[in-house]
């Protein structure tokens, strides 16, 4: 009798388990999307564009939950510690997904290996600006002024460690100039001071400041992408003016807890890729001044290409943080 039970148990152990548990085809219930920044910012806007389309394509609710704080680390840690079953995902940005590892160092509450890459949503260039009352009319003028008065000019950003801050530090590093960083608690407060003329320069994501530029309240000097922005076609890139090869963009995408079943990762990645190629999505991205993923030859994204992209971004920004001495003020 004991031998018979042992044989039955051994046979059962060799049977394949269902890929994602006993719930049936994935997904069979709502997928919670955590956004690691407050509502209204570019991370939140991008997340809601994709959440809406994912819900329609998957046939399951995709509720969005904002968990901001610590430059995106709080929400990212929550997902890194979540059950890896494919039903909790993270809509994230370049800071918590790449920059923060070097900036926070030992204080970082999670590691790159705690999160799995799913797909890149979009990329958004930053733009360097001055108040129209400034005599600085070109990016070359700003470089000359900064070299003439090392450390005496200031510039504002939406906060320490964000893409605008680190893009500016990368620009200063590569032009051999120094300016004083003035961090704010978000783009809104920073832009109020910039428009009032109380900052000598400022830097921000294009979606947040495009209205001020179009209305003439701020003068755009250069964008940080590798090509000119479609919404600011007359504004040159840093690469074509003062720093050949320069590229530093804010980017946004989806990650999931490590050890999430590969079938779920690939399914979500395929859906994000399909959504990024939809005409409606492309039009919404264009309105934001954003570029599509462009990680694959057809302009899309995959979990594998996004993972490679994140690794390269971690290395790039670690070097910028090290060389510039950037800190969390």
CATH superfamily of the largest domain: Bordetella uptake gene, domain 1
- Count of strand segments: 9
**What does the main sheet amount to?**
7 strands, mixed
Judging from the principal axes of the Cα atoms, what is the shape? globular
Q: What is the CATH domain class of the largest domain?
A: Alpha Beta
Spatial extent as radius of gyration: 22 Å
In terms of DSSP E residues, the strand content is 15-25%
Would you mind describing this structure in some detail?
The structure is a single chain. With 329 residues, the chain is α/β, with parallel strands linked by helices. It folds into 2 domains: 31-124 and 250-324, 3-Layer(aba) Sandwich (D-Maltodextrin-Binding Protein, domain 2), CATH 3.40.190; 125-223, 3-Layer(aba) Sandwich (D-Maltodextrin-Binding Protein, domain 2). 41% of the residues lie in helices and 17% in strands. The chain is built from 11 helices and 9 strands. It has helices at residues 2-13, 42-58, 73-80, 94-104, 139-148, 163-175, 187-195, 206-214, 262-276, 279-288, 303-324, and strands at residues 32-35, 64-66, 88-93, 115-130, 154-157, 180-183, 202-205, 219-223, 249-257. Strand 1 (32-35), helix 2 (42-58) and strand 2 (64-66) form a beta-alpha-beta unit. The termini are far apart. Mean pLDDT is 90; it is low at 4-21. Residues 1-21 form the signal peptide. InterPro entries: BUG, Bug_dom1. This is Tripartite tricarboxylate transporter substrate binding protein.
